[in-house]
Amino acid sequence: MTITLDDLVLVLTECAGADDDVTLNGQNLDLPFTDLGYDSLALLETAALMKHRFGVELTDEEVTGIETPREFLDRVNHAAAQAA
Amino acid sequence: MTLATPEAQETPERTGRPTAVITGIGVAAPNGLGTEQWWQSTLSGTSGIGPVVDYDASRYPSRLVGRIAGFEAAEHIPGRLLPQTDRVTRLALVAGAEALADADANPAELAEQDGYGEYGCGVVTSNATGGFEFTHREIRKLWTQGPQQVSVYESFAWFYAVNTGQLSIRHKLRGPSGVLVSEQAGGLDAIGQSRRTLGQGVKLSLTGGMDSSLDPWGLVSHLASGRLSRSDDPATAYLPFDTRAAGQVPGEGGAMLVLEEETAARARGARVYGEIAGYAATFSPRPGSGRPPGLERAARLALADGGLGVEDVDVVFADAAGLPTADDEEAAALRALFGPYGVPVTAPKTLTGRLFGGGAPLDVAAALLALRDGVIPPTTGIDRPVPEHRLDLVRATPRQAPLRTALVLARGHGGFNAAVVVRSPETA
Predict the structure, then answer these.
(1) Cα angle for residues B257, B395, B390 (degrees, 5° grid)
(2) Domain B279-423 in CATH: superfamily?
(3) Which residue is closest to A48 within chain B, CA to CA?
(4) Where, residue-wise, is CATH 3.40.47.10 in chain B?
(5) Alpha carbon of residue B271 to chain centroid
(6) Inter-chain contact A19–B80, Cβ cutoff 8 Å?
(7) If both were cysteines, with which of A17, A50, B189, B208 could B256 make a disulfide (CB 3.0 to 4.6 Å apart)?
(8) Which residue in A21, A56, A58, A20 sits closest to A40, CA to CA?
(9) Which residue of A has its CA nearest to B81?
(10) Interval B389-422: pLDDT, tens
């Protein structure tokens, strides 16, 4: 199982909302979440929903250390591979 | 102040304090979302009280609420804020934005200007019940799906201070800020605290109050107070100072006001609705103590704070509890202050129900517009006023009158009393 960018966008939007200002896509995978308008709480919420939906668990420390969407996807997919 | 008495002019607090003027008003009320819509409803006696429609309330002993109909949060605030805000915060954000726009004030821009700086604008609000609807949903998740499913935003979305926090973030109001929780008196306490921050480096302070707790759980909590009317007739359920008074109707909403130091407001060419000339708060003794309630004292202290006497007051916006004993106490305080039938008294909240932390700022907004338009809004539905009260209650229809000074009273359950004196802007 691989968690894709589309999965992340879906979950992030569900957790922290969306607006027209910034859209997360393949072009800005390396932009910090803070520049994309998502704070640490949004990421904690997203990680909680990821666990619920994909069974992938990240510790709070891991989540708060994540800065970009690419890092987030790397982390959850690494955790998913470990769990498999 | 030209009408100040000599004694009052010697009061150091009065002479040392900058004049606090209101330059913007934003309203979210059951009978009108937006200031002008609400004010027209208020003058025409259009009520926002009706039966609960969002869920089946037929088994509740009280089924009437003052609900803001047709409020679609997504039309007013950014999508990013929706997952982290309760209905009360969305209402506060809408009214706060309206007040700042009405004042033509952009705190982010003001922060760049001389005399303001990063901490030159603050926000002080009142809230009495927190974010009920949000918490109701999250608590249901907690017991049905477990703690992992509870939103992280529950950590602050429920909280009394959340309206202040979200307004601060959204409008870059980084100066001295706070929240006041003293039930219905809280809205006046917030205005008093906001005024106190002026002159401490603060030039502008967004203030007021907002409450919304009419979801099933919220309504149950209001029922537990024992103060709700059990009537099913929206026109007669909440009748303060009437012989049929038998409780209150809970409502949602409130008002946000832009308070500015007068010199700063004039310097940027702001339109001024009026001045917060006086404020005071007192605490009533415990029931059965034999000592009098503190409302009259709050009014006297607020007038003294403004260097004004009772003869200066042109109209009183009453707390109007709608409970016989509390109404008797307020009428007694008004007689002691002004004499029998000594001043016009009104309570336009008969059209909205009681709004808790949001109620008194809405009354202050009504007072400011009453001064502007020379008209006292009516207390609707009062056909049989209690004769012993001997109040000059403005009933049924608005009353035209030249107005310069209004006294706004509020009592919060638990012994809180507060009074604010609002004055017309000085004309050059």
Answers:
(1) 105
(2) Thiolase/Chalcone synthase (3.40.47.10)
(3) B148
(4) 20-268, 279-423
(5) 21
(6) yes
(7) B208
(8) A58
(9) A17
(10) 999 999 999 999 999 999 999 999 999 999 999 9
3-state SS, residue B72: coil
CA B332, B382, B312, B420: dihedral to nearest 10 degrees? 80
A24 contacts on B by Cβ (under 8 Å): none
On whether the CB atoms of residues B45 and B396 are closer than 8 A, the answer is: yes
SS3 track for A52-69: HHHCCCCCHHHHHHCCCH
How many contacts does A have with B, using Cβ atoms within 8 A? 35
Instruction: Look up the CATH architecture of domain B20-268.
Output: 3-Layer(aba) Sandwich (3.40)
Using CB atoms, pick whichever of A15, A44, A48 lies closest to residue B83.
A15
Average confidence (pLDDT) over B246-273: 97
Helices of type H across B271-424: 295-305, 324-338, 359-373
Give the tens place of pLDDT for each residue, A12-58. Answer: 988 988 876 667 888 889 999 998 888 899 999 999 999 989 999 99
Provide the pLDDT for residue A84: 74
Q: A9 at the B interface (CB within 8 A)?
A: no
Walk me through the domains of chain A, giving residue ranges and CATH numbers.
5-83 (1.10.1200.10)
The amino acid sitting at B356 is: F
Partner A, chain B 315-374, Cβ-Cβ below 8 Å = none
Looking up tokens 């992280």 gives B152
**Rounded average pLDDT over B163-186:** 98
Q: Cα–chain-centroid distance for residue B84?
A: 25
| Facing residue for B79 by CB, picked from A18, A44, A52 | A18
**Structure confidence by residue, pLDDT tens digits, B19-59:** 999 999 999 999 999 999 999 999 999 999 999 999 999 99
Separation in Å, CA of B422 to nearest CA in chain A: 41
